[in-house]
Amino acid sequence: MVSKTHVPGSHDFTVTDTELLLESPILGVRRDTVLMPGGATAKREVVEHFGAVAVVAFDGDNIAMVKQYRRSVGDHLWELPAGLLDIADEDELTGAQRELVEEAGLEAQTWSVLTDLITSPGFCDEAVRVFLAQDLKKVERPEVSGDEEADMINQWIPLKDAVGMVFSGELVNSIAIAGVMAADAVVAGRAQARPVNAPFAYRPTALAQRRKANGIVPDMKKL
């Protein structure tokens, strides 16, 4: 039972034990034993993630979007160019620049941070940094084969139409929704983007640290 003198928001949820349940190429699952405010402990499963980056590439009117198959929902979804931070010690901007070339065949001269989001904090530590990329130029996109990217559709969509897709239900990917709405606010002058060196406080570390400690570098997916 929680003490009547307990001040909500003041408890230290100390982890007293942890157990690794699953290790797979792009995620891990652990079970933490956590001290609760009443003095008892509880089990909490946590899906560990590398973290990710996404890019709103804006040419002044349109943004670069992709439509990609996602097995978890069994459908093709409209998304932003995006990818995992799965290269050991790679900073977020470098990862975003790499993904923009690989998924959209674009480079950008001007970069800023639109938003950071934790995609599902109830059970997963995944956090994503969404960048705004401007002053674009086309470059050769690397050839892909075999994975979902080989079936990916690339399309320029007017930013105003992408906003409309959020409200019509056509755009349901949470990272893309956050990026589109943030970009619309910044472009319209209702908000200001942050510099690329702004702290990414919630970037996940547990999975990456374990992979690096086990010598799984530079590509931390290579179990």
TrEMBL record:
| Keyword Mitochondrion found | no
GO CC aspect terms: cytosol
Q: Per the database record, which ranges form the Nudix hydrolase domain?
A: 48-179
* Keyword DNA damage set for record: no
| Keyword annotations of the record | Hydrolase
- Tell me any Pfam family this protein matches: NUDIX
Any one GO biological process: nucleoside phosphate metabolic process
GO MF annotations, alphabetized: hydrolase activity
* InterPro entries per the UniProt record, alphabetical: NUDIX_hydrolase-like_dom_sf, NUDIX_hydrolase_dom
Protein name (record): NTP pyrophosphohydrolase
Organism equals Corynebacterium suranareeae
Name of the coding gene: nudF
